[in-house]
Specification:
alpha+beta
Length: 127
């Protein structure tokens, strides 16, 4: 069982292992972040995560009342002169103060949850 779980890591160099671990941590973080605004309804997918030090991603997938799958991805770029967002290929626009406050609250909760999940793991493998 353990060998099966670790098989993607065996036989890889340090760079490949690092990429594998990073991608899995990002997937876990995105799932946890998707729950920041409450439980995810059945049949929907929601993710919220930090891509880099300036970029946050909010991704949603759901089926509408006509049974058509909908997908929306919002990218928030945090810059010294403001927060800008782009959705599904539309032009960047400056976010309102209210939306900036909601984003700040979501980021704060996301980080709290990340620390709750990953700090015990990190402390157990620290050298």
């Amino acid at each position: 069982m353990i060998k099966k779980l670790l098989s993607p890591l065996l036989g890889q160099d340090d760079t490949q292992r690092g990429v594998f671990v990073y991608r899995n941590m990002l997937r876990d973080a995105a799932k946890i972040g998707g729950q920041v605004f409450g439980p995810i309804p059945a049949g929907q997918r929601r993710e919220f995560f930090c891509l880099d030090e300036h970029t946050w991603i909010w991704h949603e997938e759901w089926t509408d009342e006509r049974r058509v799958q909908q997908i929306r991805t919002t990218r928030y770029d945090v810059r010294p002169h403001g927060i800008f967002k782009v959705q599904d290929g539309h032009p960047y626009k400056h976010v309102s103060d209210e939306e900036a406050k909601r984003l700040y609250g979501a980021v704060h909760e996301y980080r709290r949850r990340m620390h709750e999940k990953f700090d015990p793991i990190a402390s157990s493998v620290a050298v």
